[in-house]
Amino acid sequence: MKKLKDKVSLVTGAGAGMGREMALLFASEGSRVVATDINKQGLEGLKKEAEAKGLDITTIVADISKEEDVDKMVETAVSSYGALDILVNNAGIMDNFKTVGEAANDLWDRVIAVNLTGPFKASRSAVRVMEKQKNGGVIINNSSIGGMFGVRGGAAYVASKHGLIGLTRNMAATYGVFGNIRVNAIAPGGVETDIQDTIKDPSELGSKAIGDKGEIPMGTSGQLAKVALFLASDDSSFVNGAVLTADGGWTAG
What we know:
CATH topology: Rossmann fold
Oligomer: single chain
Shape: globular
CATH architecture: 3-Layer(aba) Sandwich
Mean pLDDT: 91
Low-confidence stretches: none
Order of helices and strands: EHEHEHEHEHEEHEHE
Number of domains: 1
CATH class: Alpha Beta
Radius of gyration: 17 Å
CATH superfamily: NAD(P)-binding Rossmann-like Domain
């Protein structure tokens, strides 16, 4: 039996990388999927692949940092499919490892808006739907090992990912314990995604702080999608408030 049969999922940042693989995998496991991104071309490619495979994926161009777009995503899921069972807050951006002394206001504001405020608003909108549903729902926040350590990113990125883990635990301790909504986070390490291409002007000091950690194990977007599937499915029915590290053992030593 398919793990997400008859579920309705919303995946942000689905135009490429992990989000794209999550959307395709969830749909192949029986979910009806609403996939969003600011990348229109990426969503068009996803839609074509889904149609070729006979998968039910609705795509919406949306900016997670805009509240009206966030509300539209959730409203589309409910109006199109009648429910929202799974929200994956996957969309995120990097910050070129900029330190506090180097980070400009607009960089800080943009990273926090996309990586933390966007997931907060998406979760708020989703919770209002899920808490009225008999079977509640599941929220998965794609954080980072940067949310668990002082480096592996710049000041804005690390702060945003720490904040996302804190948000995860708060929602799990409230809506999970006293409601019927499970909330967990994934903390990926090195993953072969398009986000690496956005690192155009890395900070010398920020890069130095990361240091020589040896060869970094690199995972694939498909591997991370399977982690998300586990957290979205009933296989993890007693997992709530967890941060699942998926870094190939990079931070284990």
